[in-house]
C-alpha cells in the first residue's frame, strides 16, 4: 500500500514539473512576442517620421542619393500643387462672399428630379362607411418614484406619511 502511495506521489510531482516547465515555456514565448511587437511598433514610429524629416532636410538643401532626390522632387511638386489648389479655393471663397451673383447664368444650378408617382390600378369605388370619431387618448400621468419599496412600506402608507 505504501508503494502505491509513493508511486502516485512521484507521478504527481512529475506532472507538476511538466506543467511548470510548460508554463515557463509559454511565458517565455509570450515575453518574446511582446518584446518583438514593441520593437516592430518602435520601428514603424521611426520610419513614419523619417520621410517628413528627410523632406525638411532636402528643403534646407541637404544632398540625398539620386533615387531619393527624385522622389523628394516629386513630393515637392505634389506639395506645390496642393498649395495652389488651396489658394485657388480660398480665393474663390473670398470672391463669392464679396461679390453676390447678379447674373443667373453664373449661379450654380442644381437639377432635382421630380419623383414619379407609381401608377395604381383603378379599383371599383366602394361606398365609404362613416368613420366613428376617435376619442382623444388621455395622457398617462408619469409614474411617481416609489421610494417606499426600498424600506418595505406599502405604497398607500408611504403616501399617508408624506401628507
Question: Which terms summarize this structure?
Answer:
3 helices, flat, 163 residues
Largest sheet report? none
Uncertain spans, ≥5 residues at pLDDT below 50?
Answer: 147-151
How are helices and strands ordered from N to C? HHH
Q: What is the global morphology?
A: flat
Number of strands: 0
Q: Looking at the chains present, what oligomeric state does this protein adopt?
A: single chain
Residue fraction in strands = under 5%
Query: Could you give the distance between the termini?
Result: 81 Å
**What is the radius of gyration computed over CA atoms, rounded to a whole number of angstroms?**
41 Å
Proportion of residues in helical segments: 55-70%
Average pLDDT metric: 76
Overall structural class, as computed from helix and strand content, comes to mainly alpha
The number of helical runs is: 3
Mind explaining what this structure looks like?
By secondary structure, the chain is an all-alpha fold. Helices cover 61% and strands 0% of the residues. It is built from 3 helices and no strands. The protein has helices at residues 2-59, 66-98, 155-162.
Write the layout of secondary structure elements.
Blueprint: H1 2-59, H2 66-98, H3 155-162
Describe, in short, the structure shown:
With 163 residues, the protein is mostly helical.
Amino acid at each position: 500500500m505504501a508503494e502505491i502511495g509513493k508511486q502516485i506521489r512521484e507521478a504527481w510531482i512529475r506532472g507538476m514539473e511538466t506543467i511548470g516547465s510548460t508554463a515557463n515555456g509559454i511565458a517565455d514565448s509570450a515575453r518574446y512576442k511582446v518584446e518583438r511587437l514593441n520593437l516592430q511598433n518602435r520601428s514603424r514610429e521611426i520610419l513614419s517620421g523619417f520621410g517628413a524629416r528627410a523632406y525638411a532636410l532636402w528643403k534646407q538643401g541637404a544632398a540625398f542619393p539620386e533615387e531619393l532626390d527624385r522622389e523628394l522632387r516629386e513630393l515637392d511638386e505634389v506639395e506645390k500643387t496642393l498649395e495652389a489648389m488651396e489658394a485657388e479655393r480660398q480665393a474663390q471663397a473670398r470672391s463669392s462672399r464679396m461679390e453676390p451673383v447678379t447674373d443667373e447664368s453664373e449661379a450654380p444650378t442644381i437639377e432635382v428630379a421630380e419623383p414619379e408617382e407609381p401608377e395604381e390600378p383603378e379599383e371599383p369605388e366602394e361606398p365609404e362607411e362613416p368613420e366613428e370619431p376617435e376619442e382623444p387618448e388621455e395622457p398617462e400621468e408619469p409614474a411617481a418614484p416609489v421610494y417606499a419599496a426600498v424600506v418595505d412600506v406599502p405604497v398607500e402608507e408611504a403616501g399617508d406619511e408624506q401628507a
